[in-house]
Specification:
The protein is an alpha+beta fold. The chain has 2 domains: 3-121, Arc Repressor Mutant, subunit A (Orthogonal Bundle); 127-283, Multidrug-efflux Transporter 1 Regulator Bmrr, Chain A (Alpha-Beta Barrel), CATH 3.20.80. It contains 11 helices and 8 strands. It has helices at residues 3-12, 20-27, 31-42, 46-64, 70-76, 82-93, 97-101, 112-121, 127-131, 156-169, 233-250; strands at 135-139, 142-150, 179-183, 196-202, 214-219, 222-230, 260-264, 277-283. Strands 1-6-8-7-3-4-2-5 form an 8-stranded antiparallel beta sheet, with helices on one face. The longest helix has 19 residues, at 46-64. It is globular. Pfam families: GyrI-like (PF06445), HTH_18 (PF12833).
Length: 286
């Protein structure tokens, strides 16, 4: 079964009623055969899969599009009313959408257990795929506005919320001002309190008022190893690991004293989860 094709179709039709027959046709199977394959390969029947994909979208909209009302999100995710949406969201998460918005941003997405499994089992890259796509470029410096998150990775969503809110207040949309993350360390290998992660956007030519915990910073000019990746978080993590280990060893390169940079080119939920585009930049020391 073409899993990515199925997931793309469901995410692209998040606001529409989708029948079993339509999904089976997308994947090229009879409804009976498709339903059996879906359960075998993804661990979910088509109806439950569709519901969790919609609730996964709702989870991200509630977290990071906080100006949207619960009703707006309900309609965006294909529910006929905010009450129907609220019942579905509470059934899966234990919280109503309003309760979630008011202080439960540390909760995992309803789809997260399945995403973790699919990322491990489906279309995981091999290093040869990355090696064929690494380019070396000399890049100019970029001035940015940055917010640093330190401490518990589980609280990163709170920092992302504040950064998105600050950008919105200052009219700095991602379509006009590039978005970057600086990866200082790996949350899976450092103590939670030592985790450090920067959120940044291109600095505008006009003056902007930084929040108290923000700063101006500079992505330095220099020689960079660059790798474009399209995929979910696990795919991105694999690409970063390749650049910072195997690539450096294979080409006798050294990493300069600057963190790994990830430019977020397209984001979920604006594009399907596995179609998010990121550019990784590794500053080289020579």
């Amino acid at each position: 079964m073409q899993v990515q094709q199925l997931l793309s179709y469901l995410q692209a039709n998040h606001d529409k009623a989708v029948s079993l027959a339509a999904l089976a046709k997308v994947c090229g199977y009879s409804p009976f055969h498709f339903q059996r394959l879906c359960t075998q390969q993804l661990g979910l029947g088509p109806g439950k899969l569709n519901e969790l994909i919609r609730l996964h979208r709702a989870y991200h909209l509630l977290l990071f599009r906080r100006w949207l009302s619960v009703t707006d999100i309900a309609f965006d995710c294909g529910y006929q009313s905010s009450d129907t949406f609220s019942r579905a969201f509470k059934r899966v998460t234990g919280y109503t959408p309003q309760q979630f918005k008011q202080g439960n941003s540390h909760l995992p997405s309803p789809l997260q257990p399945y995403l973790t499994r699919w990322n491990k089992e489906l279309a995981m890259p091999v290093n040869a795929e990355f090696a064929d796509n690494v380019l070396i470029h000399t890049l100019p410096e970029i001035q940015v506005c940055a917010l640093r998150h330190t401490g518990q990775p589980a609280r990163l969503n709170n920092s992302i919320q504040r950064f998105i809110g600050w950008r919105r207040e200052n009219k700095l949309p991602p379509a006009s001002y590039r978005t970057f993350n600086f990866l200082h360390n790996d949350p899976t290998t450092v103590a939670p309190d030592a985790f450090c992660f920067d959120l940044a956007c291109e600095r505008p030519s006009r003056a902007v008022l930084l929040a108290d915990d923000m700063r101006y910073d500079t992505i330095p000019a220099g020689r960079y190893a660059c790798l474009k990746v399209v995929g979910g978080d696990s795919y991105l993590e694999s690409a970063v690991n390749y650049l910072t280990t195997d690539f450096l060893d294979a080409y006798n390169e050294e990493m300069a004293d600057f963190p790994v940079i990830v430019e977020r080119v397209t984001f979920y939920p604006e594009v399907p989860y596995h179609q998010a585009e990121n550019h990784i930049f590794l500053l080289l020391s020579k």
